[in-house]
């Protein structure tokens, strides 16, 4: 497990042990920006969809399995896990295996609207707490020539991202319109997460931030 990677400048303070079951730098950055104290322990599970499994069920199942695996090691901690998938025409797009697959994904998304779905799980084994939610965002791509898509793939950015693009990075140029949570497209529906954490009193507004107003 990595050491504490918190950033105390955020608006919230952690009140309980918290583990992020993800190696995603983007998810870690969201938690850092909130000011949370947390540790990182990426879950390692089989991320293959079951035959006929729809995207919502798949994202929720992945998030739950990740949380449960890490909770087996740390049953006394709150576990945050998430799984983000891109779906178009009932087809789930995961992370491309190589540049050609990334190009094929981007080509399929051209000039159309796809849905980004994140399964979000908050789990504490000893306290028997399991919160499992879903967030969906509609993203519409513009159309670009294949040369532009190949140039983007050549940057390497698409290779570790569901759907083959990063809206928060270079891939932002591909997006014509977004409807819903932008942070969800990046990999974590932050508003839903903070609502959950506050509800379970896992975080609280930082007194030092309140006193400075």
Automatic annotation (TrEMBL):
Molecular-function annotations in GO: nucleoside triphosphate diphosphatase activity
Subcellular location: Cytoplasm
InterPro entries (alphabetical): ITPase-like_fam, Maf-like
Marked site positions, Important for substrate specificity: 26, 84, 168
Cofactor(s) needed for function: a divalent metal cation
Keywords from the named record: Cytoplasm, Hydrolase, Nucleotide metabolism
UniProt cross-references to SUPFAM superfamilies, sorted A to Z: ITPase-like
EC number per UniProt: 3.6.1.9
Similarity comment: Belongs to the Maf family. YhdE subfamily.
Designated name of the protein: dTTP/UTP pyrophosphatase
């Amino acid at each position: 497990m990595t050491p504490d990677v918190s950033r105390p400048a955020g608006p919230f303070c952690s009140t309980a042990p918290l583990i992020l079951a993800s190696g995603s730098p983007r998810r870690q950055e969201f938690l850092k920006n909130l000011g949370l104290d947390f540790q990182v322990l990426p879950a390692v599970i089989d991320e293959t969809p079951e035959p006929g499994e729809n995207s919502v069920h798949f994202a929720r199942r992945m998030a739950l399995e990740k949380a449960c695996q890490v909770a087996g090691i740390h049953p006394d901690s709150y576990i945050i896990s998430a799984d983000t998938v891109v779906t178009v025409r009932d087809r789930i797009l995961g992370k491309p295996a190589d540049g050609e697959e990334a190009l094929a994904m981007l080509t399929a998304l051209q000039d159309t609207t796809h849905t980004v779905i994140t399964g979000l799980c908050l789990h504490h084994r000893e306290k028997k707490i399991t919160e499992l939610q879903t967030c969906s965002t509609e993203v519409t791509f513009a159309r670009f020539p294949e040369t532009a898509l190949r140039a983007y793939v050549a940057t390497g950015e698409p290779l570790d991202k569901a759907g083959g693009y990063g809206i928060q990075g270079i891939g932002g140029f591909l997006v014509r319109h977004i409807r819903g949570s932008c942070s969800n497209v990046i990999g974590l529906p932050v508003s839903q997460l903070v609502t959950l954490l506050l509800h379970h009193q896992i975080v609280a507004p930082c007194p030092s931030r309140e006193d400075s107003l």
